[in-house]
Structures are given as structure tokens and as C-alpha cells.
Amino acid sequence: MFMTTKEYRRILKTIAESEKISVEKVEREMQRAIDVGFDNPDKDIQKEWKKISFKGDRPTVQEVIEALSKQARNI
Predict the structure, then answer these.
(1) How far apart are CA 61 and CA 66, in angstroms?
(2) How far, in whole angstroms, is CA 71 from its chain's centroid?
(3) How many whole angstroms separate alpha carbon 27 and alpha carbon 44?
(4) CA-CA distance, 3 to 12, in Å (whole number)?
(5) Distance CA 30, CA 24 (A)
């Protein structure tokens, strides 16, 4: 993991302030969106999820942010 908890919380706080909602709500809504996407049976979408490494049965918000940040750096 290359993102510290402090960095992760700062990202969520920035989003929360921008959206005028709590950090907890940001994290909850992002996880909900991840879960919906992760459960999508489309083969192309599942292929994209395989590019993200995660520890549990599905990726966390932090794991997705880390993976997308890494992908963005490689563009």
C-alpha cells in the first residue's frame, strides 16, 4: 500500500467539503458505488476489476483510490 491513512482521509475530506457532506457519507457512498460496479456481471467490466488488487472479497474505497491513482500516473 503506497497511500497512508492520513493521505486517504485528506482525499475523503476534500471530497466531503466540496460536496458539503460528511467524510463518512463520502466513504459510504463510494463503497456503495464500488459494490454496484463490482457486482456487475458484464465481462468487460469484470476484466477491469481484475486490474485492481485487493485483500478482501471486494475492493475497499482506499484500494480503489490507490489503484486509480497508480493508473493515472502511468498514463
Answers:
(1) 9
(2) 13
(3) 26
(4) 13
(5) 10
Give the cell for residue 70.
Answer: 497508480
What is the rounded CA–CA span in Å between residue 49 and residue 39?
10
Distance between CA 6 and CA 33 in Å, rounded? 23
CA–CA gap between residue 21 and residue 71 (Å, rounded): 27
Task: Write down the pTM of the prediction.
Answer: 0.88
Q: Tell me, what amino acid is at 46?
A: Q
| pLDDT, tens only, 20-55 | 999 999 999 999 999 999 999 999 999 999 999 999
Q: Nearest to residue 13, comparing CAs of 2, 1, 24, 4?
A: 24
